[in-house]
Amino acid sequence: MNQHIAKLWDSKQKSAGSQALKLAVTLACLGLAGCAVKPEPVTTEQQVQQALSDRTLMFANQEPVRGTITLDESIARALKYNLQQRVALMEQAMEDNLIGVASLDMLPKLAARAGLQTRNNVAGSSSESVTTGEQSLEASTSQDKTLRTADLSLSWNVLDFGISYFNAKMQANKSLAAEERRRRVVADITRQVRTAYWEAATAQRLQPEVTAALVDARQALEYARQTERQRLLAPVEALRFQKNMLEMVRQLEIVDSDLVMAKSRLASLMNLPPASKFDVSVPSESSLVAPKMAYTLDDLENFSMVKRPEVREESYLARNSVLETRKSLLRLLPGVSLFAGINGDSNSYLVNRQWASAGLQVSGNLLNVLSWSPVKRAGEANEELAEARRQALRMAVLTQVNVAWQEYQQSTRMFSRYQELARIQRGILNQTELSVRNQAATQMEQVRVSTETILTTRARDRSFADVQNALGAVYQAAGLDVLPDNVSDTSLAALSNTIARSTSNIETGGVPVPRLSLAVPAAVAATAQPAIAQPVAVAATPAAIVGKPYRTVNTDMWDNLQSLQAGGSH
Predict the structure, then answer these.
(1) CB within 8 Å of 393: residues ≥ 6 apart
(2) Which of these, 255, 275, 244, 277, lies nearest to 208 by C-alpha position?
(3) pLDDT value of position 433
(4) Which residues pair with 125 in a beta bridge?
(5) What's the pLDDT at 553?
(6) Which of 100, 179, 195, 241 yields a CA-CA distance of 20 to 30 A from 112?
(7) Is the pTM for the entire model greater than 0.85?
(8) Is residue 312 in a domain?
(9) Looking at the domain assignment, is residue 358 inside a domain?
């Protein structure tokens, strides 16, 4: 009888095992089928729909252009609507949100669990004597077939709290570094808008004169072709006449195309649609005066040491190097865990179905003692690397300030020369027009002088735009922002007024200069002022310490400053 029961039990177990095996194979096949995911490329219809949606969002919620656009309004539009600025703002907002996430990691862990467990037979067991090997107790059970459990536990790891604290501090520094990156984007956009605005303003004033000169030049070109066809001149003279007229038309058409593109560049920076029609505030020729610098070179160097966003960002990252060292050392310490909780179990065999528990646990790797010194040395080396990187960056910033200052001085001198040439050329044009009216000069001579006058005027206007660009480069190199840190009203009109006040404050020297007692090496102090190219070699030395595996310092802070092409390969 017992053997029959045993065989029946074995057959049931084999059947149950076979069913379990089939179920496992089925689940495995389903899992493998789920992993077989085919890539789905974006269809043309999806691309078209996405392009239409993006184009609508790119220019949505923008105040329309009313009247002429001033320099302050163009900067305000660029800072408010430029997509690059929006990306920088979103990155900063993301870093700010991560501060709260990192701070929540310092809280204790509060876990709630509930479960249901059932089985098809009784969870019974028996015992046998270790001495005789015979069954000492009859089979019994202490567990119901169906169990319902629940518990609420609170645990707090002191080591995890310390690590989370350092992570939160590091995230706060990353948020501040993101703000400095946003300031850098603002400075780049401001300088680009300043250059594009003056290009567009001078182009708008010159456009009618270019159009009229093109009409005269094309008429003269047609007259030159007629002289060739009608043989009014010798063949060589007719061809030379036609070549001269064609060359003038070509030069005027190049200027005309350049003038049209000037507004397109400004519209792109202000995030206006490419085909937008707008006018900018055009200064008169008599008001084209090179702006004066209200600060000395020493003042600008002091500004750059304190206000440059790249230097401030590097300072925040250097803080994180110190925190990273402390966090690495903290990981080597033993972990202390405190826990407490309440529990519940539906098992009817339990005397107490609800109970509370608490405890303390200490755990750690004893071999971490061997890692303490290497980890500490690595952390100190990382801190020294951060300091060397910051010093290299400061050296590059000083170089940029000096280069931008020299380029501003040079562009001012060049503008003075171009302004004098434009005045002389305008006088020649007036005399030529008078001669044409008195029939003392030909129409060809008038077209030639008009073309030269337009080219000279355009060169003068470009030189004035170069002065404005150089001035913006000086402000950017010094870290002077036209946008305050806190702006209460972000409407376009209020933002334009804020930028106007801030710009006026900078141009009149109203920004307090930080006074720094910088120690100048004797070799540098003994040299003349133009010997400012020496810091480039000095700046390369700390960058060589960094090495390829580490983050290198990019000393090329902006693309358009062609005099300093250091780049990130240092």
Answers:
(1) 310, 311, 314, 553, 555
(2) 255
(3) 81
(4) 140
(5) 41
(6) 100
(7) no
(8) yes
(9) no
Does residue 125 fall inside a structural domain?
Answer: no
DSSP H/E element including 17:
helix 2-35
pLDDT of residue 399: 93
Rounded Cα gap, residues 219 and 221, in angstroms: 5
**Which residues make Cβ contacts (< 8 Å) with residue 323, sequence separation at least 6?**
166, 169, 170, 173
Encoding tokens for residue 56?
A: 């609508």
Asked whether the beta carbons of 137 and 182 are under 8 A apart, the reply is no
Q: What is the dihedral of CA 441, 443, 448, 450, to 10 degrees?
A: 100
Rounded mean pLDDT, 440-449? 73
Higher pLDDT, 325 or 94: 325
Residue in the block written with tokens 């003042």: 299
Instruction: Look at the chain and report how many structural domains it folds into.
Output: 1
Whether the per-residue pLDDT at 89 is higher than 60: the answer is: yes
User: 531 or 214: which carries more pLDDT confidence?
Assistant: 214
Nearest to 288 by CA among 406, 428, 458: 458
CATH of the domain at 316: 1.20.1600.10
Extract the tokens encoding 506. Answer: 């900078």
Burial of residue 228 (CB within 10 Å: 0-12, 13-18, 19+) is: middle
Q: Can you give the residue range of the structural domain that contains 245?
A: 81-113+155-344+388-546
Q: Kindly state the DSSP code that residue 532 receives in the 8-state scheme.
A: T
- Please check whether residue 192 is in contact with residue 462, taking contact to mean a CB–CB distance below 8 angstroms: no
DSSP 3-state of 154: strand
What phi and psi values does residue 333 have, to the nearest 5 degrees?
A: -80, 155
Structure tokens at 278: 């707008």
Give the 3-state secondary structure of residue 153.
strand
Residue among 465, 496, 498, 474 at smallest CA distance from 484: 498
471, 408 contact by CB (below 8 A): yes
Cα torsion through 352, 354, 359, 361, rounded to 10: 100
CB atoms closer than 10 angstroms to residue 536: 16
